[in-house]
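User: Working on a comparison across species. This one is UDP-glycosyltransferase 82A1 from Dichanthelium oligosanthes. Can you predict its structure so I can line it up against the others?
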Amino acid sequence: MLRLARTLVDRGDVSVTVAVPDFIHRRMGQHLVAGVTLVSIPSGVVDDGGDEPPGPPAFLHAMEHNMPAQLEGMLTTERGIGARGVSCLVIDLLASWAIPVAACHGLPVVGFWPAMLATYRTVAVIPELMDKGVISESGAIVSTDRIDSDQNIGDLQILPAKLKLRFKDLPWLISSSAVSQKSRIAFWLQIVNRAKSIRSILVNSIHGEGSDSDLYGPPQGQEILSIGPLLFNDDPKKTTAMWQADQTCIAWLDKQSAGSVIYVSFGSWAAPIEPEKIRGFAHGLEASGRPFLWTLKNHPSWRAGLPDGYIEKVAGRGKIVSWAPQDDVLKHKAVGCYIMHCGWNSALEAARHGVRMICYFFFADHFITCAYMVNMFDFFFLLASSDQRSVRDCIERVMEGEEGRRLQQMVNKLRETITVGEAMSVAKRSLSLFMERIKKN
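Assistant: Here's the predicted structure for UDP-glycosyltransferase 82A1 from Dichanthelium oligosanthes:
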């Protein structure tokens, strides 16, 4: 959202206010960019101020029950946002609670989807899946003679068969808990229903995504504007993050050979990974014999799987930090490969710098992103298991083998597309169209 705000300010005579929940604002501090203001929305969520922000149940409740009234106040108070002349609200669709608030004030609303367009399409198709009897009202797969959870969604002409996405990989089917699954499907349905009133949706995705199939038209009555990747205007000096990066990473990378380092990170707000999986990665990275930089939060829930004395044992060849300055790391000449969780923004950041990627997904939209990257775009290498041998062998294939060289060619091709090619041109045109509409208001 901050990248989008900076981009809009740089492209026209506008000012932008980015409103975030207080527990996020406290961790981000001040955002000192001319024309962009970062403000806090009181959430009512209990927050201990530690490294880990409040969990989803707490802030999802706050979004529906506490924050709408707070946004109302910000839009009406003489000292608040309203005094600056709001001409449009850009709303992250995950915060769909803000859509009816904007409607009450008669403000134009534009949606923003920070992930792949494919993930939005997958969510938007939920009502159709229900109508076809594929999933129940709780989101569970309704197994029949023609449908089972391992079946390719493409068989029902909903998504391309080439994607090889199974029904059980749908983003709300990420927990064995029936209660949790039911709440997730309700959350996504609420987003879909509220988003029906939105004419335009800005998507941080590259032009041409989904062009392989006519199934990928936008939902009826909606316009999709591809504005991604929101990276081309990024300035490290203007970066605001929720976690303090360990800047010693760069000095350490400076001492490594070009293209030799394995960078490992599983995202900024992912749930902790099971200890046995962390243990497998630890042994695999050590067995690879290569230098590695591993972002692993310094919290027992994350580091419980590290073997005793591991950090001391690999010191020098392996560096483990709580958080790294990711963009600076990915563009460093020493980095040769990135083991990641299939987060869309991380994938774009790596592609922007021409870094080969190994994909190990965990939950939610990771399955969809991975399916695209591996089966459609062909610039990910899928790691099927986190055991020592799989990790070691996968690193070797990507760093030294023919598959790795082919992967590098595909990443280079994508890099050109998103930095100077067609995707960049379309993103600029979409942003210009959006700016024209703002100014007309």
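For your comparison, note: Residues 294 and 347 are 17 Å apart (CA to CA).

User: Helpful, thanks.
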